[in-house]
Amino acid sequence: MKRFLALLLAASMSLALVACGGTKTPSSSGSSASSGGSSGGSSASSGSTTPENLTETQKIIQQAQTMTLEELAQKAIEESNGKTFYGVGNSSRGKSALPLFIEYLQTIDPNYNMEFDWQQPKNNKIFDQLTADSLKDTGTFAMTLIQDGNQIESKMVQTGILDTFIPKDWADANGTTAEEYEGYLPLQTLNKIFMYNNTGSKTYDNCWDFVAEGEHALFMDIDSEIVGKNFLYMLTRDDYAAWLKEAFEALPAEEQAYFQPTITAMESEAADLGLGADGAYALAWIKLWVESYNAQTDDGPICNTLVDKSATDQFGLLVYSKLRSVEESASVSKNNITVAAYNDGYTGIGGFGYCHYLFVTDNSPLPWTACAFIAYMTCTADGFSAWGKDIGGYSSNPAVAAENEEIYHHQTGGMAEDGTTVEFAALNDAGYDWWTTDGKLVLEDPQYCASVSFSVGSWIEMLTKYSAG
Amino acid sequence: MDPTTIRVNTAAIRRNKIKTYFSKPHNVILLLMGIVLTFSTVAPIIAIVEDTFKIHPGTIDAHLTGQSSGYTIVNYVDLFTSRMAKTNLWTPLLNTVLLAVGTCVVAILFGGLFAFLITRTNLAWRKYLSSIFIFPYIMPQWTLAVVWQNMFNSNAVTGTSNGLLAATLGINMPIWWCKGLFPSLVVLGLHYAPFAYILIGGIFRNMDANLEEAATILDTPKWKIMCRITLPMVKPAILSTILLVFGSAMGSYPVPHYLGLTTLATKYISMNSKYTGEASILAIIMMVFGVAIMFLNQLSLQSRKGYTTVTGKSGQISKINLGRVGKYVIALVLVVVTFFTSIFPIVSFAFETFLPNPGDYSFLYTGDPDNLTTKWWTTDENVTENGMYGQKGILHNETIWNAFKGTIWVSVCCSLLAGTIGTLIGYAVSKNRRSKWANYVNSVAFLPYLMPSIAVGVAFFILFSNEHVNLFNTYTILIIVGTIKYIPFASRSSLNSMLQLSGEIEEAAIIQNIPWIKRMTRIIIPIQKSSIISGYLLPFMTCLRELSLFMLLCVQGFILATTLDYFDEMGLYAFSSGINLILIITILVCNTLVNKVTGASLDKGIGG
Q1: What is the ipTM score, two decimals?
Q2: Residues A34 and A177 in one domain
């Protein structure tokens, strides 16, 4: 009956479809869907693309990848002096980085000037905006700073809308070359970590504690911030599923007994979804998480809640940097928060790491300037400074990351002025290396996410989400 | 007779007929508006229908068809028949209908009762109550939702930090009170109650009391008078309220979003990334409701009985005596109620801008002024980390003030365009009352208002995002959409006022050979000045705090409503509260200015 109804509706609307006239298909001029590496999806400009198939922007990118920042800056000055640069990104900080970039170009040519406009769309609109812009011969946006590897892979890179540019200086700092490097160019990795309010007696020393009976994590709804879904997808990858199994085995027997029936029930589901040997542990954790988390509109309100003394024993998975602006008062303190992974004896995943990626649009009106700006942000501490002052965000360039730490001292950011007294333990950022090893940060892999978004993804959508209302 | 002569004459007659037809300005207006409005209403609908068949790379339709472009019906099949149908379609649809119906009920009961007490009784402090009642409509609708959260949330029940009630009095409200359908329909009902108040109040105010008095003389019980006489009299106003509120409530995104209710509007946003085509079907379903309401309205207009006794000529309005004490007691109750719906949110917004952290009420427990700050207003840099989340204070924040300028620009343009076009439509339709084309133009102008805002926004986004025209994040698209959406404010107001004008007035001027422009500017407009200005004022005020319509058409920071929503979502309540105060002050100043200069005001114009 429903199928009939659907067909009937579809048929009744087909007249309107006929009236629509000329069909518009997204430009796929960039024959860029080459296979990519494990960490960052397919790269448009490197790999097997033959020179005769390259778009104009890709040809420029190929040249740009052999140039130093200074050489790129010269090209940018020639190209964009007196013009307006349009950028779009998931981070508002692009707006702070652009004036610094212009100042940098003015150190080379004092007469240089460029207007700029930086847009930050919400509600996943960035993908629609870039898709719509890609339909024009010459686009509005010169470049983008974008998150959510899954959608980037399936909607932006495979369709040829965005091209990856790997700055030479960045490649050198990472001990690779543009040709060898496979994947997208990350500006930084951000971490969302498990934190809890410590004004009560409860402690969380295992990641399974966050999905225990009666627990309700504060978490941005996975439908609001799609990157949260990627966290869940990633848990099903063999290595992360193994971490979950390991953490489960570290639980006391009585706690294991609570989770075991769910894990057992997930074994057939894991097999159906083609997951590895430990897939059932991942699915069990995901199921318990989705069916228990208390959805919030943003990490901001979650942080506001957790730092208040009234939020006894509440916990959440949120962006680490949110702690930066909390002001001490009678009921609010950064010391009301404990970062779970910093606890001695904590077992299991400590959070989720995802990247802000940088791309040149394939119909970029200012491709050289876009490349120079990308190189400036990824290869200099000044260029990264718009993000560098925050804890929980780590430059993808090891040299910049080290310089940034020298400037901002994030690893000792919670120490008192004497340098020895711990004033705010939660603010001592252990750093990227620690988080990705001891801290057991689950890192986003765009290609893996894209590959499971309609298998694991659809399975997750079938779960009944917890509703406090 | 020579056949050639006949042919020439026929042609001449036809020419003359056409010439005569177009010599009347209202015919030209009708023709032009009919064509423009048909395009502006139908084109977005066609665009969104096309989108439901289109294959979108990286989404479910591409996955199911294995193609990255082309057309398919798989979106319909999947939405209606897949295992997700209940989650993605039926539950949100049910919630949406319940929300829209509940909002209408709350708005009509609250607004109607208020209108009755103000207009038909000797209630005390009527002037104060009348002006304060309209405040929730002035404020962006979701701000009441945020106030609701800040008031009733508690660690024990909602799992968040304690709201004001839990923090100060230790009262934990039940979950159904804090989240879901109930708070959503109450908040939206309070927001739209001024519609009911103004429409129903207008009838109560002008209603001839002779009928009720006749019934009283015949010893009819009071409840019977109410059911058989008073309520049928206000039925048209109730239907108008439903007409205005149902579609608006249905397309509201922010209120259900903040209060945790899944509706078609919130589902559209959450499905749009992976189920793009299916999300467009949800938008079409919302539009179908808009069209259905319009047809129901047409039916009710046809069957509506004529109440020729409501002439306003008698001027006899009997006021119920509430008693010496009663009139103060009931007024006091209303003062308390309106305090919580109108004054408290403003006080709480102002207070919020002085808290050290969002939602940090330390000052209330301690009384220590150190737990208050002016940093949210006065900080003039965002380089050092001083608890401002990378933002400058409100007074120095370029984002907020640029958004303010953008909002004013969009609102002024929408108001001028919608007001002028609506007035002309009202005039032209009133001159061709019996013409089918005029009725068509009138209906097609009203249709966008009945369609849920979010669906209209989606349709225009799709329409104007192609290789030829790309208007995303431009003032142009906001002005176009705002104008089309708000023409009904002016056209209804203008039509109703023009219908009151006798044709003789303009005919006298025509005999004197006065040009049309002069007739309009010297006779018609001055006579109906008050209603016409209301037709300009309402689009202006509504545009100032419109979110659902504009949220998909521009980025945050472009206009004040999206900026406000951004700060609310981020939990930076000091900024959102400050913006709310700016909006409220702007609207009040504009309303007062217009009122002083022209005598027109907001509460005279809603729905005509």
Answers
A1: 0.76
A2: yes
